[in-house]
């Protein structure tokens, strides 16, 4: 059951994450797009923190029901949001796009929205030719390589293992603080960091923020991995001395 839920939730998370980023990027104006896109992580981190806070005090099943309830609220909320103006522009529906932009307070961007999708046919995104252009056009190949590299490095850095087994890690570390309470501190730290990022992304730039955050992650993972090697090394040295 756990494996099945993990597969289903993983598929759902992948679809929702991509859809959210595309939607937020299409409804936001260019001067605040970076801030809004980085702010989307705050919601996900808040959800993880909520699970950390609820988990120690309820059963495993109740934690799942709590997450399910949050998803229902999300589903109902999506029903009331407007369609993306870029989607209407691609479909050639000027009146619908104008109404959405008026709702968003961006009616003056109507011409820019239609200009940005100029030459794009309604079925282009779903056609096999569009997928071929990802690999045949040099600029698209570079973008694909950078995107896949960043996503692969992020997911293989061990972030999922640390988040999923945070309580167990604190137990093995012998922390004086209760492991489940210490796990909540991780959620709070991630939340604070995600709230700082939107204010820096427009000032410092995307690249420098990515480099700095990656450097800090690398240092913390190095210390984390080394801390697990030290007990083994000490144990081996002790056995060698006794021998």
From TrEMBL:
Residue ranges occupied by any Major facilitator superfamily (MFS) profile domain in the UniProt entry: 1-243
One Pfam family named in its UniProt record: Sugar_tr
Keyword terms, alphabetized: Membrane, Transmembrane, Transmembrane helix
Entry-linked Gene3D superfamilies: MFS general substrate transporter like domains
Signal peptide bounds: none
Gene Ontology CC: membrane
TM regions (residue ranges): 6-23, 35-58, 64-81, 143-169, 181-201, 208-228
The protein, known as: Major facilitator superfamily (MFS) profile domain-containing protein
Lineage: Eukaryota, Metazoa, Ecdysozoa, Arthropoda, Hexapoda
